[in-house]
Write the structure tokens for this entry.
Amino acid sequence: MAQLDVAPVLEQISSKKVRKLCIISSKGSLDMAYPPLILANAARMSGIDADLFFTFWGLDIITKKKMDKLSVATVGNPNMHPWFHIPTIIGMLPGMSAMASWMMRREIDKLDFPPVGEFVEMVMDAGARVYGCKMSMDMMKLTKNDLVDGSEVLGAMEFLELAEDAQTLFV
Amino acid sequence: MSAVLELVEFDAEGFMNDAKAWTPEIGEAIAATLGITLTNRHWVVINFARKEFTEKGEAPSLRRITKTTDVDTKEIYQLFPGGPAKVAAKIAGLSKPTGCI
């Protein structure tokens, strides 16, 4: 069963002109990794097409070595409650970001949301397509092999072609 | 529409109004209207969703289904094309799922 391809099914659905969502993900902190993944997954669960374009720091989300090591900023981040508020001067201390990230991972796990790496795999299994931004990859000296398996590399213009007729979100 | 469905009440989006009125025959008939022929693999998902609904009062999230049964994400999308969360809930006679995952 596992070898079956979802492509023909997607094809069949797309012939009916389904709604399509394109999400540009530009931030790679732990808190900002989830919104694009949750939206893409929700789209696929309800039969909406989903394309994800990862650019700049967003690339960390689909970079194999980094995806499960994303962290929360404790300096310059005014949104630290629901856990606790961290004054900037405390947030500067070594280990604060690691601790906040650990706490956030724990809360995410309680809600039964998977860790970032598993989440990316899940949305891809669900039929969302994942693209890395070519220009950002050149800047960060990344190649296709650094990105999660099954992703593609695209230029901004090519992504815009994909996004034609889609609702586009910038995260 | 199949005779089995004549007395079944649906909401505007095609979800059954009363999950308790559901029978496996109704499930088969709803699936047929959606162009799906139910196999043993579909029943793994449907039976699990019904069981969870009876125990907890709400339909399980897709993640819970794929984590708990041996049907993985890829397979559930093949079994219920066009959005498995909604399609599986319709066939299982459950209300529209509200989970985000």
User: Anything to note?
Assistant: The interface with chain A takes residues 41, 61-64, 72-75, 77-78, 81-87, 100-101 of chain B (CB under 8 Å). Residues 3 and 29 of chain B are 9 Å apart (CA to CA).
